[in-house]
Target: Iron ABC transporter permease
Amino acid sequence: MTRWLVLLAILLVGMVMASLALGDIALSWRDLWETLVGSQDVSPQNAVIVFDLRLPRVLLAVLVGAALATAGTITLAVMRNPLAEPGVLGINSGAAAAVVAVIVLMRDPPVLLLPAAGFLGASAMAAAVFLLSWRAGTSSLRIILIGIGLGSLASAATTFLSAFGEIGNVQRAMIWLAGSVYDADISKVRFLFLWLIIPLALAWMASRELDLIRFGDDAARSFGQPVDRIRGLMIVLCTLICGAAVAAAGLIGFVGLVAPHVASRLVGPSHARILPVAVLCGAILVVAADLVGRLIIAPIQLPAGIVTGLIGAPFFASLLWKRRHVRG
Model:
């Protein structure tokens, strides 16, 4: 595990440095180093490019990737379905519907209202899914089915608002829905970092509970685990993590699916090992997606969510293909 952590950490640092150096105005490695260490010879333009434009964007991508990977790891364990990701719980659809409603229905909404609306929408959807799935207890199948149904309803509401909204507002909403970290600033990075500290720590501390619930309700109860309570707490934790990430950067799909699977293949089934590796994998994926989106058809910038979709869709298809003969 230590070897993979070191290798992934080195890869992440390399991706961060590349993201700071490359763009519309490319910086040499020497100029980048002098800017980062605060050399007296650094130009004011390079300082603005690195510290004001690119560094907040890269840091937000790291945090969002880590959050989505952690939420995806929790979802895979709780749902016991290798095709599950946080979107199954309706979190993404709920956040999207709330943000689109604010953008389309309000004239010049405050900037801080958009993340708040996204988080509240995600929380409301997760609460509705859990309450509607309760029937003398919960089950992963009921949660998945109800989550898909409510998610479809929220998506329909988003489409309805987009169809009748003012064209300028609808375009803003579509950009947000695509998922991007282009509007990052240091205050948003600081807020997301402080928000995620406790939930990510709690997720790592719950590694044993995730290991138990993955084996099924009966097996987990035989070891003394209060399954319904743990499942509810894990959904709350997933909402706190994923809802904040979606509110900060929009819908960046498939990170919560790809990163946990890659991590489990690298270090095995233990969640104490999977979680830190998945965090690094998710951060690398979002940083790389943002970098590719900025460079592939420059000066036009593709949102990171589109790039992760291009990566995640084939990955999802490969999982479906491998399970084509699996029943239940």
